[in-house]
């Protein structure tokens, strides 16, 4: 299990480490959960904002803390910033009946 839906009540995004060591982040925007590898397509560095969030202040878009690129949470597409048109690498997750978020089986 990577996280639980309740984990996103207090803060709508969080970073997690997969069993294979990859760092990913999960966001909940408008009730939808999505996950991406925590590497910005601009310079291949983690996106973490200073306060540990992955969303801009409005909570609608993913934001890179390094140069401020903004990404759509549905697709990971960069819609503003130096890597506009590039995509975050998605991580497929599933949510079970208890609200546990797991890596989706490949
Ligand atoms: S490294 Fe993310 S916008 Fe530059």
Automatic annotation (TrEMBL):
Superkingdom assignment: Bacteria
SUPFAM superfamilies found in the cross-reference section: ISP domain (SSF50022)
Matching CDD domains: Rieske
Isomerase among keywords: no
UniProt xrefs under InterPro entries: Rieske_2Fe-2S, Rieske_2Fe-2S_sf
Statement: the UniProt record of this protein carries the keyword Iron-sulfur: yes
The protein's name: Rieske 2Fe-2S domain-containing protein
Lineage: Bacteria, Pseudomonadati, Pseudomonadota, Gammaproteobacteria, Oceanospirillales
